[in-house]
Amino acid sequence: MTERAGGAGHVAVLVNPASGRGAGADGGRIAIERLRARGADVRVYRGASEDETVALCRRAVDEGPDVLVVAGGDGTISSVLPPLLESGIPLALVPGGTGNDLAREHGIPLDDAAAAADIALDGARRRVDTGTITADDGTVRHFVTVLCAGLDSLTNERTNRMTWPTGPSRYLVAAYLEWLRLRTFRYRLHPAGAPSLEQDGYMLAIGLTKTYGGGVPICPNADPTDGLLDVTLVQAVGRFKLLTFDSLIKAGTHVERPEVTTLRASAIRLEAPAGLVTCADGEHVGPVPVTVEAHREALTLCVPA
Fold first, then answer.
1. Where are the coiled-coil regions (predicted)?
2. Which fold has domain 2-122?
3. What is the DSSP string of 198-227?
4. What are the pLDDT digits (tens) for 84-111?
């Protein structure tokens, strides 16, 4: 469902200075200047940590803004979802992370913070899905793009630990190092309303959106408004054959291959060998097992009109 925005008013801007190695702070500054120049009543909240950012989001929504602008990445967005979803206040994005895949999914400018800020005032309001990841100890984590477990999550973990090189090449180096120590995982999937599946594989993605990792279409048929999770499982095909899948995944055609299993469900329990970690929105989540659930049109997102 999509509606038109209501123009300038009370706008809360939540800035994560740590996002994208400073990109969140830069984007936030530009957005604040733009919104004030357009006559909005802008109130700014800057958090120095995830816990502080969440606390500031709660304070911001308690003050009843017409829209909340988040200058940061997908991880920042998912961390502040609980108070935002409780409030029902629309979310506007000023992309300032590494991947920015939620913004990519909805056509929000990635390199023009002023244009992204304009969408808070002039854009449409679209209801989109969110997801939750529940561990067996009851811990719940929200996400907005893709959860992964396998080669991709291990690569993400290694990338976050590395300090060199910088930029996109850091992910490529991490991926190569993980490929050298490639492991097969026995995935056990229990989708709601469908038979369970047990399959050996290298990587698994469970997506609300099509892309992760800055535009890689791992779940190319995902619909962010259908209330369903799209699952992509790359089977154990051999170390060198897996290399040929890189170009297929980047083109989004890997799901047409028999070596790739896909399915769709509103909720899925994921089990796998001990030691396998999950990541979502580019951030560490925790070990398996987990239960992943889609929540249909739970979030109001500001998108280009």
1. none
2. Rossmann fold (3.40.50)
3. EEEEEEEEEESSS-BTTTB-SSTT--TTSS
4. 999 999 999 999 888 899 999 999 999 9
